[in-house]
Amino acid sequence: MKAYFRTEASNAVGMGHLMRCMALAQILSDQYIKCSFIVPPESIPFCLGRHDWDFSLIPLQEELPTIDEYRWFSENIDLTSDDILVLDSYKFTGQYISSMAQLPASLVLFDDCNDRDKLEVDVVINSAGGADSLGYEVTAPDAHYCLGEQYRLLRREFLTELPQPLPDRNSLTIVMGGTDPQGLSLRILQELSQQEFYGPVRLVTTSNNPQLEEIKLFTTNTLLSVQLVIDCQDLATIFSHSRLTLSAAGSSQFELLAMHCPTVLLVVADNQFNAAQASENQGWCRVFDVRETKNMVNVVSGLTQLWQNESKLQSMMKAAQQHADTKGNERILDTIARLDSERLDGR
C-alpha cells in the first residue's frame, strides 16, 4: 500500500488542510506505508518549511484546473487498487470527487460540513463533534465513517508532550493559523494594548504571514510584553505551557484540547462553526463568531475576564482533561486497514 495526499497550503487558504493530512501521513508512515503529497507548486515552501517534514513531494502541473486533474493523475501517478488517495481542500466539488473516484485507489476524504452533494468515497473523516448528524449516510452511503471527536487526528508532538498544571502556565498564547489569512493577529495585539492587558503574551505565527513586518514593528513599540514566535516547530510545548489561548477555530482546537488548554476560539470561516460550537458545549473553551466583523473589542474583553478568573480557568482545564481523547489516530488507522481487508476479500 502507498498513500497519496492531494491537498494544499497557501497564504490564502492557510495550512490547516496540510497539517491534518500530515498528521495522517505520520501514522501511516509509522506502519511503513510510503506517503507522498501532491500539491500545487505554491504549496511546496509551506511543506518544506516544516522541520518534521518527511514525505515525498510531487508538484502538480502549474495552474492545472481541477477539472483536468483526473487525466493528470492517470498519466503521472502510478495508482493501484492497493493504494489510498486522500483528498483535503474546500475547492474539491462533488463532481471533482466523482471523477477522482474513477482512479483505482481507495478514496479518503477530509470533510467539515457535508455540503458537496454526492460523495463517491471509501472513507469520510470529519472529527467535529456532531459530525455523525450531518447526513453522510445520504451523501456517502457506501463509505466507512470516521465521524466525531473520537476520530481526532494528532501530530506526533501532541502524543508525547505532557500538559502542565495551571500554576506552571504563564502566557496568553495567540495563534491565528499558519498564515493568518484574516489578518487578525495584529488587530488582536493592538486591542490588547488599547485595553492595557498586563500579562505575558506569546504570538505564534509564520514567516508566510503577510503582515509579519507590521507585527514586528508593533511589538517593538508597544508596552505589551510580547514574545513573537515565528515558524514554531514545537507547538505542543507552547500549548502545554499556555495559561489561556486565543486561536482560530480550525483543527488546532483539537491540539489545544489534547494539551488541556483553556481556550477562546474565533470562528473565521463557515466550515469552523459546527466544530467550535461542539467544543464550547464541552466547557473547555469559549467561542466568538467573527465572520461578519473583525472588531476585537469584545474578544479581548472576554480574554481579560478569563485571564483574571483563576477558578474559571481551572474548571475549563478540568473539562479539557475530561474530553481529551488521544486515540483518534488508532481508530482512523483501523478504518483504513479495513479497506485493505475488504479488497483482499473481494468486496
UniProtKB/TrEMBL annotation:
<feature type="domain" description="Glycosyl transferase family 28 C-terminal">
    <location>
        <begin position="174"/>
        <end position="331"/>
    </location>
</feature>
<dbReference type="Pfam" id="PF04101">
    <property type="entry name" value="Glyco_tran_28_C"/>
</dbReference>
<dbReference type="InterPro" id="IPR020023">
    <property type="entry name" value="PseG"/>
</dbReference>
<feature type="active site" description="Proton acceptor">
    <location>
        <position position="17"/>
    </location>
</feature>
<protein>
    <submittedName>
        <fullName>UDP-2,4-diacetamido-2,4,6-trideoxy-beta-L-altropyranose hydrolase</fullName>
    </submittedName>
</protein>
<feature type="binding site">
    <location>
        <position position="255"/>
    </location>
    <ligand>
        <name>substrate</name>
    </ligand>
</feature>
<feature type="binding site">
    <location>
        <position position="155"/>
    </location>
    <ligand>
        <name>substrate</name>
    </ligand>
</feature>
<dbReference type="GO" id="GO:0016758">
    <property type="term" value="F:hexosyltransferase activity"/>
</dbReference>
<dbReference type="GO" id="GO:0016787">
    <property type="term" value="F:hydrolase activity"/>
</dbReference>
<keyword id="KW-0378">Hydrolase</keyword>
<dbReference type="InterPro" id="IPR007235">
    <property type="entry name" value="Glyco_trans_28_C"/>
</dbReference>
